[in-house]
Each structure stands twice: as C-alpha cells, then as structure tokens.
Amino acid sequence: VFPSLAQAQASVANEVYQELGQPSVFLFCPTEYCSSLCSPNPRQSCYLQTIGQELLPGIGVIWTGPKVVSQELSAVLLEEVEGVLRRRPVIWDNLYANDYDCRRVFLGPYMGRAPGLMSRLHGLLLNPNCELQANFIPIHTLGTWFQSEQRSCALPDHAGMEPEATLGDSQGPQEGSYSPQEALELALHDWVAEINQQTLEPGR
C-alpha cells in the first residue's frame, strides 16, 4: 500500500493524531531515532526526510542524540536534526538508563549537554535507572541544569549566544552557567537531608 516504511508510519501516526483530536502532546519515535541508526547520516537519510515532510507539524519527534546512549549533546547536531525533521526534537535522554545492564547504576550529575540547548528542544525526557532510589541525583541535577537554562534564556544577550558553544563551557564558573560539580554537591546535600529525615520516621 505504501511506497516506504517512513510513509506508512507517518500516515498511521497522522491518522491516530487526528482521530484523538490533535492533542497538545503527541510523540512519535522514528525507526532512526539517533545519528548512529541513520543511513548514511541524519541530513542525508531518506527515511528522516520523509518523516519530516509527511508527519503533521503538531506531532513531536523523539531523538536520543548521536547514539542510543549519548554522552554528549551539541547544539550543532540538534540544529541539523531540526532541519531534517522540520521541527525541534524531543530528546529522550538515556544518559542514566541501565535497563540494558542492570549491574551498573549511574549516580553522577547531569552533564555533557552544551549550554543553550533548551532553545533547540521541543522537550526533554529522562530515562532513569531502573532502581527508584538511585535516581535522586540524576533528577535533582537535571532540575538544576534546567534552572540554569531558564536563567540563561532570560539574559538580554541570550539571542547572541553562539550555538557552537563547547560542552566544556558548561563546566565553567561563569555567572548563571551550569556546573555539574556544584549541581552534584547540592544534590548530595539534599539527598543526605532526605535520608536523615526518613530514618527518623517510625518503622524505618
């Protein structure tokens, strides 16, 4: 019926989206959802080009970055993906995901994301550790990163920020910038307070 997989997926997604009354949040995960899965690359992928052309503009498209689990996200890559998809992507961030290897638990701060990314995103979802209690630091530091992004967006000169800002810039001490180390220390302080509070509760 359809000349390609991408056209089939877009047609079905569009029909479901319209049948549901075009909800404000409707997400589509493409078969090629990261750069390493694209053939030959995001910009030249016939699949992604078709998805970008055929999918209704109100539908959000999920993207994980250069890889399924991306250590870094750059504004340059997101700009390229936005151009192909004809919309800002929704990042499905697998930085902390351990469902593929439950022997590992990730407790470090949210990092490796260039400053100023929020203006390039339609949304961001965090895929956490499978162990609920292990996600205090990941979610807490994500919140700190998000607050720093909001502050930077509020600065008068934000429009002049270089999209090619390096990932190392996020480590610096500049006013309003995100520091993974400071975010980690803040999260640890609050986590210890939470643990101490729980130990005082009856039955703990």
From TrEMBL:
Superkingdom assignment: Eukaryota
Gene3D superfamilies listed in its UniProt record: Glycosidases (3.20.20.80)
Compositional bias per record (Polar residues), positions renumbered to this chain: 168-180
InterPro entries in UniProt: GH, Glycosyl_Hydrolase_84, O-GlcNAcase_cat
Region described as Disordered: 159-180
A GO BP annotation: glycoprotein metabolic process
GO molecular function annotations of the record: beta-N-acetylglucosaminidase activity
Protein name as annotated: OGA GlcNAcase
Domain (GH84): residue spans on this chain: 1-150
Record Pfam families: NAGidase (PF07555)
Protein's gene: Mgea5_1
